[in-house]
Amino acid sequence: MEANAGLVAGSHRRNELVRIRHDSDSGSKPVDVSGQICKICGGVVGLTADGDVFVACNECAYPVCRPCYEYERKEGDQSCPKCKTRHEPIRLLTNGQPVSGEIPFPCATSDYNQSVRTNSGPLGPNGDKHLDPRLPVPVRIVDPSKDLNSYGLGNVDWKERVEGWKLKQDKNMIQVTSRYADGKGDMEGTGSNGEELQMADDDARQPLSRVVPISSSHMTPYRIVIILRLIILVNRETYLDRLALRFDREGEPSQLAPIDVFVSTVDPLKEPPLVTANTVLSILAVDYPVDKVSCYVSDDGSAMLTFESLSETAEFARKWVPFCKKHNIEPRAPEFYFAQKIDYLKDKIQPSFVKERRAMKREYEEYKVRINALVAKAQKMPEEGWTMQDGTPWPGNNSRDHPGMIQVFLGHNGGLDTDGNELPRLVYVSREKRPGFQHHKKAGAMNALIRVSAVLTNGAYLLNVDCDHYFNNSKALKEAMCFMMDPAYGKKTCYVQFPQRFDGIDNHDRYANRNIVFFDINLKGLDGIQGPVYVGTGCCFNRKALYGALLMSQKSLEKRFGQSPVFIAATFMEQGGIPPSTNLATLLKEAIHVISCGYEDKTEWGKEIGWIYGSVTEDILTGFKMHARGWISIYCMPPRPAFKGSAPINLSDRLNQVLRWALGSIEILLSRHCPIWYGYNGKLRLLERLAYINTIVYPLTSIPLLFYCCLPALCLLTGKFIIPELSNLASMWFILLFVSIFTTGILELRWSGVSIEDWWRNEQFWVIGGTSAHLFAVFQGLLKVLAGIDTNFTVTSKASDDDGDFAELYVFKWTTLLIPPTTVLIFNMVGIVAGVSHAINSGYQSWGPLFGKLFFAIWVIAHLYPFLKGLLGRQNRTPTIVIVWSILLASIFSLLWVRIDPFTSDAAKAASQCGVNC
Ligand SMILES: O=c1ccn([C@@H]2O[C@H](COP(=O)(O)OP(=O)(O)O[C@H]3O[C@H](CO)[C@@H](O)[C@H](O)[C@H]3O)[C@@H](O)[C@H]2O)c(=O)[nH]1
Ligand SMILES: [Mn+2]
Ligand SMILES: [Zn+2]
Ligand SMILES: [Zn+2]
To answer: 187-193 contacts: CB < 8 A, separation 24 or more?
Structure first.
């Protein structure tokens, strides 16, 4: 620094323009402003490199921290949030020294000093501030447009500098894109490393994410319309650059926390190995230090196919991962990456990349051929069961009776990638299964993985995905760490949930598979209370939150966690990780022990800790348990969706999925963990509880819904009306109710950004699910409680082939779930026909009331329309719905024809009319 003194001063020169000295060495009482809170993000305003309080606005000294100030200046509305003075654009000086956050607008007003005084201590005799002897030049506030001497700063040197600065500013208009350019400029120009570090230190105190409020013009009317939904709605924004600056600096060992990623799979026929493989590849290629990521694949089907394809995948990852990282591609699941179209003209693509991409694509095709060969081979099990490549029988031949199996691929001692770099560890786990032992479906599998991973790698955080949910955004782990490693959020956050997004859904999303309303309205809204519910996939957990409270004696530790000293020791590792010297073979032995089927006996697994048992929607239950302990959760929606999965797109599969969810809710409703009566210790927020109650009682609404759907038809058939007589007052109330529901809906759509079509699909599917799956769930749930009949977890099939014409949408499978909605549909159609024919027969005056009744019947049919389409299938692409409507209309017209039959005499007509009506 000394050697370059001149340049150091040069860099200080910039600082002087903004520095407001926080004078602790003055005689009178200093005001401590070091802890000043930023009015934008709520973080500490912090100091400049020289230890002064950072001031963003010279006009009003409104407290804003540097990151917020820079954000506002670069991407925000470029003015002071309080006095609206415009911030100067970001420019570079001629000598390459960037002018960034440290120079706000070079202006000052006379009342400025006053506002400064309150902030930063007393001023000197001339109204000038006390000077800090440690500084090379005194501190002052300068308006270059005014005579400098009028500020009592008769310093020629100063004046020159300002003039010079002005000149340079006019000449140079190079935009600085990031604040790191600033730091580097300093390093090259002045070598002032100390200053740079200090700036980095400042950043270390900044939050890693911020809440982005929704504009009040969108929110206020919404809140007014519906008091119950008075929720503090929020958006969030993460700062990956700050995360990197704090924990992952270039050239230093990364300080990011280790994370274990879990993938669950059970049935390789419904969940094709290629789908799982793509998920695994996207995890192995994730943008995170390789030694801090481990991928665990749980195979609940103990399928050799899954094992062998994972082995192939590990091999392919050695080529795939370096390719992804070198070219920084997205997404890093090859199937989806290669399905993307590249615009070679537009996307400034280098020829070398084009070549490598093509070569990689070929490699992937070859890999796919190998996987498909494995799948073909696995179609029919030989009589003696499967045999592994080394000739020994596959231990998992009986998926209900087999030992625990673990295989470690890649990682520290495994193969390197083709560039010679290490790869994340990949572990195959199939927990032990024996007859007579409850295995608790997915929740059981997840708990086994918690223990295996604690023994082998012990990541401080866990992230779990379904086998079909690949990382669509390679920075997803870092996004999660922006909350988990945040000084403010980290300690109280149990998980960060990402929204579920889907591929391969038909354009109109006929069966509301995207669940947009749930993800973009419900979960987003909950983020403003105590956090979103856990939805089972795409969720990053704080490992500690899964362990419950930790302060207890050794004996009770064993009672809680089971008899594994290695596992118990691991629970004490605050930052995760395992002692470096431990021998893998010993650990593997312990890992086999913790996945044995009797391990959880008389422990708290599934009752108090880990994934909670007792419901096929283990996710809701698990999240609820954490919220009831007072943890908060976070909803993170990065602009590029973090995860993407597949959804069942044919009607029957979709209904079965909804049935499972509804059944899971009923199971919770009738269990000890029911949010209506569980957890009154004051830690679960009231509105959060309300939301949980809503997520578990909804299947019950199917009963009134069914009645409501039948009423219009009933009215039409009997000639009676729902409302006895439409008095003016009654219709007023009715219209008011309708309008208020409608307004809430519209306002909700405004803040959530959900489209009308998505909303309408959701409404339709609510009725379809309500009259089928929800109804069945209520009865099955009661059966479970009363007769002890266990529920099973029917996995949805994940399509692997990309035919693209949505053939899957039209697949028709018979299920009893189809009966009630079909009945309701036919009932209403018959009602319409009967009603119209009745009106035809009863003359002019009966048409008025008829329209009222018809409206309700058509309203029901409109809701069930996608269901009807699903029932009718594709049938050679003829819009079959037209046929149905033609039949309907045909019958109406034929009745009409009968009525005005020109051949019947007037007398006969009168007689028949009388006959109908009397
Ligand atoms: O005994 C079992 C049953 C299922 N699974 C896994 O559970 C996941 C979810 O199954 P899926 O058929 O895809 O169900 P979805 O309805 O699509 O899943 C949603 O709903 C489930 C709760 O019903 C959650 O567990 C899921 O995470 C969530 O994505 C899959 O990875 C399965 O392999 C197991 O590991 N073991
Ligand atoms: Mn799924
Ligand atoms: Zn201001
Ligand atoms: Zn701030």
So the answer is: 188/96, 189/7, 189/10, 189/11, 189/95, 189/96, 189/97, 190/1, 190/4, 190/7, 190/8, 190/10, 190/11, 191/1, 191/3, 191/4, 191/7, 192/1, 192/4, 192/8, 192/11, 193/1
